[in-house]
Design brief:
Belongs to the glycosyl hydrolase 47 family. GO terms for molecular function: calcium ion binding; mannosyl-oligosaccharide 1,2-alpha-mannosidase activity. By secondary structure, the protein is mainly alpha-helical.
């Protein structure tokens, strides 16, 4: 008899199948024949192995052709002859020559901007029109709050006053200095041309170029912000062909429509309106279309001033359906956004003769002047203010009649009679006048009051005897109860129209509160701190005071007064000397958080911040010093500008971050470096951190001792597991030695191994040997006794209790290591305690003040400082198509943000170029520049 296992059968079948596949692959036998051959081989193999089973009957394969009855397929149609091809007439010889000429690849035309209709159609109300792709156009609407012509604040028309010279009188330069200057000038011009060409190729007529990816974005209404912003820079650099092309492209800008829902008044005014007016001015007023487009834009912007107090909406929602409604200025307006419109509208009024443009901004100036000395920090304005002109109404109420106590309430009670009862405290009991009980009448009648007095009792079924009394026991008239509960509360019901509604004298005398009380500028909140700064959200409001004085030829004295008052406060509260390791004599201008009362100011309210936006202050103070004869301010201006130059030199890239903080010294004269103070500022919680660690350690030891005690108790409470008891009914086996298959007769296994259910077996004994080369057929099979036998059953292992998980406190760094680690991780320059914003977005404020200092003082030191700044900026911001903002100036390899704002071409590169240009180009005695560096010609 053959010894076999089931797996041998499968192995044999697999071998035969592989042989069949090999045979099929090397012959022309079909799949069907190969399958039948493999089946026959399998049957023969099973017979040879002694299975004795009959072969399965072969599967009857379908040999009949598949036929489907499809009526459509069975139809026959006659073939149709196509129509004859028409003969194309032979073109003339000239046309043939043109057709035979190789054609260039067609270019995709640029989309044409829709032109506004003569009368824009009113917006439809249906939803389909809202989803239409047709553009919505702004249209001039009748003003809700017009200014009468006789009330217009007119532009000063007198002769300009004599104003002191601002610019230094320069001496002729030598040949070597000129050659060096021209080389630097050409380098700046090359950087500008790369950025301009990138914009012209990849972002033409869009707002901004993405200089790394070669794409564009439109944050400013998609009116070509970079194109308009860079017009005067093109002219100054002598790129007249580029200027000509850009000036013509301005006509393609449609200021009457935009995909943006709101128009930012401040940004649009300084970039677009200022750019158009300045380009018209500097080009000798030859390009009339620039002024026409400026007027077109101004008509849109002036509509934002149509409010009750003529203060503008700083974000103008221009679409007709919204703009046609009544609006007020916001109760929370950014100071710079409302106070930095004067120069652009004033210059436009001077060029066009339209007084309404000057009237609009003159009213803002009047409100600023009135509010200047009424702020918490008199002389300056907070970063946010209420420009709505609507104050809270206060109503004086009529005096209230004092309440009188009932008679006898506070009188001393008389001595009780012998028959009266006394309370435990010796006072007489006083019976209460309780209200009459409510009794429901039968049949759902109205409820009535039943008097407690028996004399006033009545029968429930006799309504004539019903008596309803008040709290004093007096009968009430029936008509006072017949009230319809469903009637409105303000009108009598059910025939009671003759009953008058009584009104108290105080209510009748109360006046109707007004909608609001007219007021000028005001604080946004009477409580909480207010921020005062020359930096972001305030800067250009102060900058425009001396510049507006220049633009008006000194005829409006209030601009000088407002400037001088504000600068006195700035020098007293905001300007400070930072504590630096080398004790550099520089100044910063921080920001002050003022509480509701100025008397509550503490030194900590001054934040020792130096922000890039604040760096314009050096140039402003220098100009004001020359303009208003304030020589001390010029020294402050120099040190403020030096502070910004120091801020550039302190970083790895040589570029100043957006903002950082330092420690203000108490005096600008004496400012000694104090390492201890610097370390304590970086690590003010050193003592708390160490004491907290000691407390945590104590708590940890206490918790550990408690956990250890609990764990020992749990171990002690544990008992040994009970031993299994042997049932006497089952005899104990004599041996636990495994029984091998070789000890059994083969006949005992023949019929039981394949079909019998064997108990689970365990692994062989540890000492058992197995010859790897031994034939698997001769390997003995181990037979283990069943685990159902109690003696050999697995016993449960006793589980030990889990020790409670405790968090061990981590030892903190000591004060010295903490400070050193913080400086290393934050990459803090020496003397800097915090970097608020590490990025650089190609800002111009620092080089602006450097240029002003050079033009005012004539010191060549400023040119050297400016050149170092330019080289650092170009090195770390240069891209393929222009220059890009970077993420972190403290890195050795900062990341490009793929952003190039329009002021890179309008301001930053213009100031760098003017720094090395001859001093007669844009002389400060002939021109005045707005906050976007657009030059306006001063009146003569």
């Amino acid at each position: 008899m053959f010894r076999y296992r089931r797996y041998r059968v499968f192995l044999a079948f697999a071998a035969i199948t592989l042989f069949a596949l090999y045979k099929f692959g090397t012959s022309n036998t079909t799949w069907r024949e190969a399958a039948s051959t493999a089946a026959e081989l399998k049957n023969e193999a099973e017979d040879a192995l002694g299975f004795g089973s009959k072969p399965r009957p072969p599967i009857a394969h379908e040999t009949k052709k598949l036929e489907l009855q499809i009526p459509v397929a069975s139809r026959t149609q006659a073939l149709q002859t196509p129509p004859p091809v028409k003969q194309v007439p032979t073109p003339p010889a000239a046309t043939r020559a043109a057709l035979e000429t190789p054609q260039q690849k067609p270019t995709i035309p640029s989309p044409l901007r829709p032109k506004p209709p003569a009368k824009p159609a009113p917006l439809a109300d249906d939803a389909a029109s809202l989803n239409s792709i047709e553009a919505i156009y702004w249209t001039k609407l009748p003003e809700k709050f017009p200014v009468p012509s006789q009330s217009l604040i007119k532009l000063p028309s007198g002769k300009p006053k004599k104003i002191p010279k601002i610019q230094h009188k320069f001496k002729p330069e030598d040949a070597a200095a000129k050659m060096d200057r021209l080389a630097k000038l050409e380098r700046v011009k090359t950087v500008f041309k790369k950025s301009w060409n990138g914009y012209r190729e990849y972002a033409w007529l869009h707002d901004e170029l993405r200089p790394e990816s070669g794409t564009f974005k439109d944050p400013f209404a998609n009116w070509g912000a970079t194109l308009v912003d860079a017009l005067d820079t093109l002219w100054i650099m002598g790129l007249k062909d580029e200027f000509e092309e850009a000036a013509k492209a301005v006509d393609k800008i449609n200021f009457l429509t935009t995909t943006r829902a709101d128009i930012p008044l401040f940004e649009t005014t300084i970039r677009y309106l200022g750019g158009l007016v300045a380009a018209y001015d500097i080009s000798g007023k030859k390009y009339k279309n620039l002024l026409d487009k400026a007027v077109e834009l101004a008509e849109v912007l002036i509509s934002a001033f149509d409010t009750p107090n003529r203060m503008p909406e700083t974000y103008y929602y221009w679409r007709p359906q919204f703009a046609s409604q009544r609006h007020r200025a916001s109760t929370r307006v950014v100071l710079a956004e409302i106070g930095s419109l004067s120069m652009e509208f004033t210059r436009l009024a001077q060029l066009t003769g339209e007084h309404k443009y000057y009237d609009a901004i003159a009213r803002i100036t009047d409100n600023l002047e009135e509010y200047q000395n009424n702020t918490r920090l008199a002389g300056m304005w907070p970063t946010y203010l209420d420009a709505s002109g609507c104050g809270k109404p206060y109503i004086d109420l009529a005096p209230q009649v004092p309440l009188k106590a009932p008679a006898g309430m506070y009188e001393t009670p008389a001595a009780p009679s012998p028959t009266q009862k006394l309370s435990p405290g010796g006072k007489k009991y006083v019976s209460l006048q309780l209200p009459d009980p409510i009794v429901l009448t039968p049949n759902g009648a109205n409820p009535t009051y039943v008097p407690s007095n028996l004399e006033d009792s009545f029968a429930l079924d006799t309504p004539d005897k019903r008596v309803v009394r008040d709290w004093e026991g007096k009968p009430l008239e029936r008509r006072q109860l017949d009230v319809d509960l469903d009637a409105p509360p303000d009108s009598p019901a059910n025939g009671a129209a003759d009953v008058p509604i009584k009104t108290s004298a105080a209510a009748a005398a109360m006046p109707t509160p007004p909608e609001c009380v007219e007021q000028g500028f005001a604080a946004t909140s009477e409580r909480g701190h207010e921020e005062y700064t020359l930096g972001g959200m305030s800067d250009s409001t102060y900058e425009y005071l001396p510049k507006q004085f220049l633009l008006l030829g000194g005829q409006i004295e209030k601009y000088r007064t407002m400037y001088e008052q504000s600068m006195d406060v700035v020098k007293q509260y905001l300007i400070f000397r930072p504590m630096l390791p080398n004790e550099d004599d520089v100044l910063f201008c921080g920001k002050l958080n003022v509480p509701p009362r100025i008397e509550d100011l503490v030194p900590g309210d001054l934040t020792g911040e130096n922000a890039h936006l604040t760096c314009f202050a050096g140039g402003m103070l220098g100009m004001g010093a020359k303009l208003f004869d304030r020589p001390d301010d010029l020294e402050i201006a120099k040190k403020l500008t030096e502070g910004c130059v120091w801020s550039y030199n302190m970083t790895q890239t040589g570029i100043m971050p957006e903002s950082f903080e330092a420690i203000p010294c108490k005096s600008t004269k004496d400012c000694t470096w104090n390492q201890t103070l610097y370390s304590e500022t970086l690590d003010p919680r050193a003592e708390y951190r160490l004491s907290s660690y000691r407390e945590q350690i104590q708590n940890y030891h206490s918790m550990y001792a408690s956990a250890s005690s609990w764990y020992e108790e749990q171990l002690a409470a544990m008992t040994a597991p009970p031993k299994p008891s042997v049932d006497p009914a089952f005899p104990v086996l004599a041996t636990q030695t495994p029984v091998y298959a070789d000890t059994l007769d083969k006949r005992q296994l023949a019929d039981s191994m394949d079909d019998a259910e064997v108990e689970p077996t365990s692994a062989p004994p540890v000492g058992a040997r197995r010859d790897e080369e031994e034939d698997p057929e001769d390997t003995p099979t181990k037979v283990q006794p069943s685990f159902k036998v109690p003696e050999v059953a697995l016993q449960p292992t006793p589980t030990l209790p889990d020790f409670p998980y405790l968090y061990s406190p981590v030892a903190p760094l000591n004060h010295k290591d903490f400070v050193q680690n913080l400086i290393k991780e934050e990459r803090l320059p020496s003397g800097v305690t915090k970097i608020g914003a590490r990025n650089y977005i190609l800002r111009p404020e620092a080089i602006e003040s450097v240029w002003y200092m050079y033009r005012i003082t004539g010191d060549n030191h400023w040119r050297e400082a400016g050149w170092r700044m330019f080289m650092a900026i170009d090195q770390y911001t240069s891209t393929k198509y222009g220059n890009s903002a970077i993420d972190d100036v403290t890195k050795t390899s900062p990341t490009l943000n793929d952003d190039m704002e329009s002021f890179w071409l309008a301001e930053t590169l213009k100031y760098f170029y003017l720094l090395f240009e001859t001093e007669d180009v844009l002389s400060l005695d002939d021109w005045v520049l707005n906050t976007e560096a657009h030059p306006f010609r001063r009146p003569t």
